[in-house]
Amino acid sequence: MANPPVRKAIFPAAGLGTRFLPATKATPKEMLPIVDVPLIQYALEEVVAAGIEEVIIVTGRGKRAIEDHFDLSFELDYFLEENGKSNLLDATYALLDRVQISYVRQRQPLGLGHAVACGRRLVGDEPFAVVLADDLIYADPPCLAQMVQVYERHGASVVAAQRVEPVQTRRYGIVDGEPVGERTIRVRTMVEKPEPSEAPSNLAIVGRYILTPELFDEIERAAPGRGGEIQLTDALVALLARQPIYAYEFTGIRYDAGDKLGFLQATVEYALRNEELGDRFRRYLKGLMASL
Ligand code: G1P
User: Fold this and answer.
1) What are the DSSP calls for 144-163, one per residue?
2) Which of 80, 209, 232, 251 sits between 20 and 30 A of 191, alpha carbons compared?
C-alpha cells in the first residue's frame, strides 16, 4: 500500500528569540529578513515546493506580525496598486494562494516537543512535516522535497541531518545508526544536545522532520528532558521502540540563522545570489576585502 502523502506542516514559532535581543523585543525572530524575505517566508516556500498544502504555525504572545505578514494588507495593497507597484508583492501572494495557514498558540514555552503537540488536532492522524524557520536551507531540490522522497521510499519518519564539528554536539540532537542507502541511515540511537564526550556520533539533527502521527502519543507521554523542556528528540527516541526512523544527510547549505554569525553568513550569501543586488554586492565585498 502506498504511504499516505505528507500534506501538512507544523512551524513552531513561539520561541522568545533571546539571542537576537534587542531586535526581537517586539518583532518575532521568524520575521527577521535575509535580504528582503523574512525567514518564515523561506520556510513557507520550501514546504509548498514539497507539495504541502496546509501549514500550522505555532505562535505565542508577541507574534502577531507573522499573521499580518501572511494576510492581505488592504492599505498597502491599495497604495501599491495606485502607484503601479503591485508586482512587489506578487510572489508573496502567489505563494499564499497555494497554501492554507492556521495558527495555534503555545501558551507557555515548554519546549519543541510541546510546541509540536500544539498542532496535533489540526494535523490529525496523518504524517506531517516540522520545519524550524531559523534553520535556513539553500538547496535544489529544496531540503524538504528531498526528505519526502526518503519518506516515500521507507514509509517512516525522517529527520534531516548534517555532520558538525565534534565540539558542537551540545547544540543539537545527535543521531547514530546503520547506513541503508545513499545519504540515509536507519537510526539506532538519538540524544538531545550531548556533551562531545557522550555523543554517539557527530551527525546532528537539522530543523526539518517528517513524522508519523504516532509521534504525538510519545510527546504526550514524554517527561521533561534537557532544560526541563518537553523535547522532540526524547519523543523520537520513544518512537524508535515502535517504528523505524531514518536520518537523511540532505544536499544543500544550511545556515543557522538563529545565531548571529549564521544570520550574517546567510545574509551575505543570499545577497551574492540575489539577481538585483548580486553583482554590485560582489564588487563592494571585493573592495572591502582589499581594504582589510
Ligand atoms: C532543536 C532540537 C535539536 C535540533 C535543532 C536543530 O534545538 O531540539 O534536536 O538539533 O533544533 O536546529 P534548538 O535549536 O531549538 O535548541
Assistant:
1) HHHHHHHHHHH-SEEEEEEE
2) 251
